[in-house]
Each structure stands twice: as C-alpha cells, then as structure tokens.
Amino acid sequence: MAVYDDMIFQIVREAEAELAKKLEADIFYFNGEIRMQLFQWFREVIEKLAARPDKKDAIAIFLTTPGGEATVVEKLVEVVRKHYSLVYFVIPVAAMSAGTIFSMSGDKIYMDYSSSLGPIDPQVPDRDGRFLIPALGHIDKVNEIIKKSADNVITPVEFEWVMRQDFAMLRFYEQARDLSVALLEKWLVQYKFKDWIKHRTNNPGDEVTPEEKQARAREIANMLSDNTTWHSHGRMISMQTLRDRCKLEIDDFGLDLELQKHVRRYNDTLSEYLARSNIRAFLYTGQAA
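Above: the chain's sequence. Below: its structure in token form.
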C-alpha cells in the first residue's frame, strides 16, 4: 500500500509543479468542511509554504468543500493575505456555501464548464455543535409562517412550531447571514474588483467609481444569498450562470487544455486517494514538504 501511495503522490507532485509554472503561483489543496478545527493546520501549512526561499507572490488554492462557517472563512483569509499579495482560487469541481464566500476573497477565480459554486447560505452549528445546518432555510421558514400569521391563515401546528423556536438561535442565524453578505461585499470590492477601472458594457470607457463597485458587490451578495433565486442550499451554480446572472468575471481554465489537464490530474488523483482512504478533510502542498 505504501508503494502505491508513493506512486499516487509522485503523480500529484508532478501535476503540482506544472500548475505552479502555468499559474505562476504557489499551489495549495484544500478539501473538506471549513471548520475551526482545521484552522491551526491551515495556518501551519500556509506559513511553511510562504517561508520557502522560492516563494511566489501569488498562491493558487484548489478548493473543494461542501461549505462551513463564515467566521472561519474570515480567519483563513486573514492568514492567506498576511503572506500573499495575490490569491487565486481554482474550483476543479465544487465549492459550496462558505466555500463560495472564501473564493470571493480571491483576486481571480478559475473554473471550467463543469465547476460549480453555491448559494451563500451560511452553515451554523446545531445545538450540540456536532453538525452544520443551513441558516437561511430556517429563517425563511419562520418568515413564511410570520407572514401567514399576518394574513390570518396560520395553522395551529405552525403556531405551535414557531412558539417552540429558540429566538436567540434565530438571531444567531440572522447574524451569520449578515456576516456572509458583508464579507462578500468587502472582499469583492477590495480584491476581485480592484482592477475594474473602466466600464466595458454600460458606458464603455467611463471610469468605475468606488460607489459603483460597492453597488455591484452588494447586488452579487444579495443574489447569491437569495433562496428564492436558487431554491436549494445545495444548488450548484455553473461558471456560465455566475457570468450571466451575477456578472462575475471568472477565468475559464478549460480554454487552456494543458492547464485543464493538469488541474484534473492534480485534483482527481487526490480526490480518489481521499475517497479510498476515507479521509474527510485534507490540506496539502508538496512544495512545503
């Protein structure tokens, strides 16, 4: 088994070296839920990667995640930005919920036609702290029943359900939602839109004002956090949908077939290794080994 693993990671390191040359960036692989338990591990790997004599100005984070906690995303961004002036996110398959928020802190987002981000429905710990649950679905249901009460069509069962809710937890869910939107707005303006100087569609050639950047960021954040738009916490939003509906600029790594080959070789080899080994969270870079 050890020999087989050595062969797998030889393939991974070769692909990583090609990706580092193609993207002109240090390479970092993140696969798993975004939870505080990973923070120290994440910080340690980033610090080792950034301490190398041949460290690059940019880091490319290959991100695969079902989501996690927005508060943790904020800490991860602080760590990465302490050490790198340029941050790229590569989405080989899918980065959902908090993963979408994380990717919006990048200077560039790389996807291809088969990649997906997700709605930014923040995930919060349940009462026992064991599992993460989507906050917006809970808030939406409560608001729906409140509206039915205002319209005087609430049922006794719905009334009883609302009365059993922990309103401190509901407020916690609302705060998680507000934080997600605020982080998205902040990072889009600060990083993703920093080179958006001139309009290219409306009033082409005119300078883009800070107010216009803020308004666009708010529009994107509100759209991605709107459950009535996406209908499902697990909705996979394609690169083309992000471009067309959210007006986000996404770099298509599929246009460079050589780059796409290396992305898939790197990601798919590691993903298959994790599935076979039943590993639920994995941070990796061969450059800091």
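The chain has eleven helices and eleven strands.
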